[in-house]
Amino acid sequence: MIDLSELIRPGDGIWWGQGGAEPTALVGALLDDAHRIGPLTAFVGAAWNPRLVRDLPEDLSVTSYGALGELRLLSRRGSLDVIPCHYSALPRMFASGRLPCDVGMVQVSPPDQDGLVSLGIGVDYMADALAHTRTLIGEINHRMPITTGGPRLPLSAFAAVVEADRPLLELAGRAPDDVDLRIAQHVASLIDDGDTLQMGVGSLPNAVLEALQGHCDLGFHSGIITDGVIDLIERGVLTGARKEIDPGVAVTGSLFGTAHGYGRVADLPVRFCATSYTHAPEVLSRLRSFVSVNSAIEIDLTGQVNAEIARGTYIGAVGGQVDFSRAAALTGGRSIIALRSSVPFRNGGTTSTIVPTLSGPVSTGRVDVDAVVTEHGVAVLTGCTDRERRRRLVRIAAPEHREMLERAAGDTLDVA
After folding, report:
1. pLDDT band at residue 331 using 50, 70 and 90 as cut-offs
2. Which architecture, in CATH terms, is 4-164?
3. In the 8-state DSSP scheme, what is residue 69?
């Protein structure tokens, strides 16, 4: 295996790809060699590699834009430093040196007929970090698909490479349940044929995608694409025919999926782009029927969203939520926050996700939320006074928590 001590210096900052694009062989070598090299700092997005939690050495400090995937366990242990930021800020933070970029580790496809490798299913912040990285190390995986849109690199761009032939890491998750499906039906009712969508990852977004099977000519422009999106492309639902920019193409930064999606994406009209394109305000402003669908940990009675911290611990991220929500709210589309009305409480019972006051930070401001959706209905907030917002949000809260919310609102609300 590769000896990273010859390529990485004490005190270096290292970044690598997230999700299924993580170069696990290189990350494994880093975990093995960190104690010999000296203090190091690493930046990574969503991490699915359990070794990062199980074998994290003391000499390696991990930072991220959130606590996603296995990073949640590091967060609970106090071993993760989160940089709260909009996803659109990552490119300029790499450019200014505010994010670690002495060394970059990337998983790439085998060389094409021109001798160039592709970043495959993970382009996003990696494409923006490349120009600011001193030393680039590549893991050539013969199962990484060659995708379009992202940069192609010659082998001479790498200080060293290793070869692998292994399945890409896959996104784990549960199937949508009845609550997810009810929420999804409400969300789907807010989406018109021809709209261009942005959506996140998880059982609820998967349920929304399933609920959209009867729509037509939908477009897609998002930081992440999933297997559910690929299915809608293959079924002719997501055609992108009415998109104002990139017509006929689904635009994304990464594929968070499984072998099902990895094996199909190269043959579909999917373009992988850098974060500096997918999240850029000047790009999003050209999408006139843009609908963002995001989730939250909790939302208060004014419409403010906490998508980051629960019970004092980071479990989420600002991510691209504000980038996309603001764009949708400003350009004639719709910004939707969808969430379950309650979640199980650790001591039994449930706790409301619609709350009088947020227990964590404001990730998304109330003015960038057009509609909130739970399994109990839709609260359209655009154009509403604070009093009317409270009334509508209480109406879609879990029934067992409505009286508490009404009392906390400080006045009598007719929520019938």
Report:
1. confident
2. 3-Layer(aba) Sandwich (3.40)
3. B
